[in-house]
Design a protein that fits this description.
The complex is a heterodimer of chains A (114) and B (116).
Chain A lengths: L2 E4 L4 E4 L4 E3 L1 E4 L5 E7 L5 E7 L5 E4 L2 E4 L9 E3 L8 E11 L2 E6 L3 E6 L1
Parallel strand pairs in A: 2-12
Antiparallel strand pairs in A: 1-4, 3-9, 5-6, 5-10, 7-8, 8-9, 10-11, 10-12
Chain B lengths: L4 E3 L2 E4 L5 E6 L6 E7 L6 E7 L2 E4 L8 E4 L6 E5 L8 E8 L10 E2 L3 E5 L1
Parallel strand pairs in B: 2-11
Antiparallel strand pairs in B: 1-3, 3-8, 4-5, 4-9, 5-6, 7-8, 9-10, 9-11
The chains are: A mainly beta (114), B mainly beta (116).
């Protein structure tokens, strides 16, 4: 079946530090890959996505590259800010006809200290 | 553009009681999803609607959970009777269905259910 494994948290960084959150997946077929972010008290928001191998998704300084050979989609940011404190979810999407199966990892809590 | 709306935001009930959640998707989005997010876990899909038809309900516990989307817009999710293990955040999402399967799902703020 399809599954996503994320780096366990919580992760605590100082402002301006480099961030990596690891994500690996197992899937049948050709999934799309997503990173969602959940800020305190808010719903899930799409952060970035990649739909095929070697695609790079980017948004708000965050980047992730779809690596088929290592089945990975690691999230990176060069310099984190306090406002980046949130829970980050990696997810894979498989489509079959009109069915859309989005499988999430368990989430990684990030806290950025000033 | 208005986002996905959900209500109520919080609900506390006792086990064996019933509860209903409401979702209004983004205007024009034909596809609607309900997810269950247990504390410390990622969301798990319960059911997907395309307009007012069910596309996938394979992970919906049908003995106690039901969902409908009668007019292809709003949707309700019901639990009857509730169990302690149903305590979770119930998320609604909507999307435009794309032919390539690269749809982005947009999530509402969720309803936090506590079953005592």
């Amino acid at each position: 079946g399809n599954s996503v494994t994320q780096m366990e948290g919580p992760v605590t960084l100082s402002e301006e530090a480099f961030l990596t959150i690891n994500c690996t997946y197992t899937a049948t077929g050709y999934p799309s890959l997503f990173w969602y972010v959940q800020y305190p008290g808010e719903g899930l928001q799409l952060l970035l996505k990649a739909t095929k191998a070697d695609d790079k998704g980017s948004n708000k300084g965050f980047e992730a590259t779809y690596r088929k050979e290592t089945t990975s989609f690691h999230l990176e940011k060069g310099s984190v800010q306090v406002s980046d404190s949130a829970v980050y979810f990696c997810a894979l999407g498989i489509s079959s006809g009109s069915a859309r199966q989005l499988t999430f990892g368990s989430g990684t809590q990030l806290t950025v200290l000033p | 553009e208005a986002g996905v709306a959900q209500s109520p935001r919080y609900k506390i009930i006792e086990k064996r009681q019933s509860v209903a959640f409401w979702c209004n998707p983004i205007s024009g989005h034909a596809t609607l999803y309900w997810y269950q997010q247990i504390l410390g876990q990622g969301p798990k899909l319960l059911i997907q609607f395309q307009n007012n038809g069910v596309v996938d309900d394979s992970q919906l516990p049908k003995d106690r959970f039901s969902a409908e989307r009668l007019k292809g817009v709003d949707s309700t999710l019901k639990i009857q009777p509730a169990k302690l293990e149903d305590s979770a955040v119930y998320l609604c999402a909507s999307s435009l269905l794309t032919s390539g399967g690269t749809d982005t799902q947009y999530f509402g703020p969720g309803t936090r259910l506590t079953v005592l």
